[in-house]
TrEMBL record, chains A, B:
<dbReference type="GO" id="GO:0008254">
    <property type="term" value="F:3'-nucleotidase activity"/>
</dbReference>
<dbReference type="GO" id="GO:0005737">
    <property type="term" value="C:cytoplasm"/>
</dbReference>
<keyword id="KW-0547">Nucleotide-binding</keyword>
<comment type="function">
    <text>Nucleotidase that shows phosphatase activity on nucleoside 5'-monophosphates.</text>
</comment>
<keyword id="KW-0378">Hydrolase</keyword>
<feature type="binding site">
    <location>
        <position position="10"/>
    </location>
    <ligand>
        <name>a divalent metal cation</name>
    </ligand>
</feature>
<dbReference type="GO" id="GO:0046872">
    <property type="term" value="F:metal ion binding"/>
</dbReference>
<dbReference type="InterPro" id="IPR002828">
    <property type="entry name" value="SurE-like_Pase/nucleotidase"/>
</dbReference>
<dbReference type="GO" id="GO:0004309">
    <property type="term" value="F:exopolyphosphatase activity"/>
</dbReference>
<dbReference type="GO" id="GO:0000166">
    <property type="term" value="F:nucleotide binding"/>
</dbReference>
<feature type="binding site">
    <location>
        <position position="93"/>
    </location>
    <ligand>
        <name>a divalent metal cation</name>
    </ligand>
</feature>
<keyword id="KW-0479">Metal-binding</keyword>
<protein>
    <recommendedName>
        <fullName>5'-nucleotidase SurE</fullName>
        <ecNumber>3.1.3.5</ecNumber>
    </recommendedName>
</protein>
<feature type="domain" description="Survival protein SurE-like phosphatase/nucleotidase">
    <location>
        <begin position="5"/>
        <end position="186"/>
    </location>
</feature>
<comment type="similarity">
    <text>Belongs to the SurE nucleotidase family.</text>
</comment>
<dbReference type="InterPro" id="IPR036523">
    <property type="entry name" value="SurE-like_sf"/>
</dbReference>
<feature type="binding site">
    <location>
        <position position="41"/>
    </location>
    <ligand>
        <name>a divalent metal cation</name>
    </ligand>
</feature>
Length: 251, 251
């Protein structure tokens, strides 16, 4: 039976990244887009609870929602798709989702929501600047999507994929399985003034500094590999749990 | 030297929960509030990048920001506080933050941002319904804040604290160190119609169903204990990493 694939993102339903991913997923299944009506970057795993959401069918198999990527996945799975999807594919994001930054990422959060709802999921992002070569990333999306449909994924685990922004696939060294890297510091907050002279702050524009290390996602893309990181939703620090149990006086 | 403590939340600067936490943190340090100007629940780890943010000093040591909890922590640490804080305390949230739900939580995300910026952090939430007994949770906040200031926390790790909504502290059995629980399913999405007859969807109102198990956060609060879960920011599934490394053909 042809697998059903949900495609979403956080750059919005009209972005070139989602169009490339949609085309790629059509090679391996019945693909549907359910995506935000406009850009919702850095929204994290936000869910819209304070207002109703509107779904619009733009064309065959393509729906837009005036909400977040997480809203899109929840609505798609529970209300929009003809049956439960076999795969959630989120992206192709315009820009990296590496290290701690994944906690801010709408792209990765869509894959987290898929995983919470027990659908195998991956997020895919392009690392680099304009011009973006979505076709290169799309060809890896086909490979990874096919792998997941074939072998599934470990319990409670999604794949976070980052692809170097190379013009052609054969300019990339291959795929590396990695661990989540660590961003050390990025303090960039601009101070700006309104037309009325009030000070405001604008977050962004900093250069992240990364811890480097073997197996890290950031290192893999620097070495011109596709980074594939298995991410799980159990955030418990089990070492700390054992440690704290021993020393906390159970009051 | 008196420690400096940043107090924030996602229910907004005027909520009774943050006032109770502020008062509690003043018992153990120089406390400052930097919090959203209004409720920002279920915003996840959202960072506002598309517009400037305005900070208002409401009264001594109390600031409001027209942004998310994550914005508040970043601005406080980099721009507002007189020096780097020794502790970030986020809450007291009106309602539980247990299991997978922490990925949606603005309250927990504030503590995640503190941890990313290398400040020991905890999030504290009241489990139950109105009327909320913030003083009970506040007394545990003092105990936990003091513990963290004294002993610090493991690398990259915060504490997610959930307190049963008991009228008095002695009605609670004590503190349990727990692991993150697992919410199984909550499909509640209402279908409603606009005044013009358009169908809309409204997410929410469902009854979560929980996996139960030893050491789980949800079980501890059901047993009338304060649940303290050590959460870390490295989401890598290391078992899956080893497994995938073995089987993935490095193309």
């Amino acid at each position: 039976m042809t697998p059903l694939i949900l495609v979403t993102n956080d750059d919005g339903v009209h972005s070139p990244g989602i169009i490339a991913l949609f085309k790629a997923m059509k090679e391996i299944g019945d693909a549907y887009i359910v995506a935000p009506d406009r850009e919702r970057s850095a929204v994290g795993h936000a869910l819209t609870l304070h207002r109703p959401l509107k779904v619009e069918e733009l064309r065959e198999n393509v729906f837009s929602v005036n909400g977040t990527p997480t809203d899109c996945v929840a609505l798609a799975i529970h209300k929009i798709l003809p049956k439960r999807p076999d795969l959630v594919a989120s992206g192709i994001n315009r820009g990296a989702n590496l290290g701690d930054d994944i906690t801010y990422s709408g792209t990765v959060s869509a894959a987290i929501e898929g995983t919470i709802l027990s659908v195998p999921s991956f997020a895919i992002s392009l690392v680099g600047d304009k011009p973006f070569h979505y076709e290169t990333a799309a060809s890896f999306a086909v490979e990874i999507g096919r792998y997941i449909l074939d072998k599934s994924l470990p319990y409670d685990t999604l794949l976070n994929v980052n692809v170097p922004n190379a013009q052609k696939r054969d300019m990339i060294n291959g795929i590396k399985i990695t661990r989540q890297g660590k961003r050390v510091y990025d303090s960039a907050i601009q101070e700006i003034y309104s037309p009325w002279g009030d000070k405001h702050y604008w977050i962004g524009g900093g250069k992240p500094y990364w811890e480097h290390g073997e197996d890290m996602d950031i290192q893999a893309v620097l070495d011109n590999y596709v980074s594939v990181t298995p991410i799980h939703l159990d955030l418990t620090n089990y070492e700390a749990l054992e440690y704290l149990k021993k020393i906390w006086k159970q009051s």
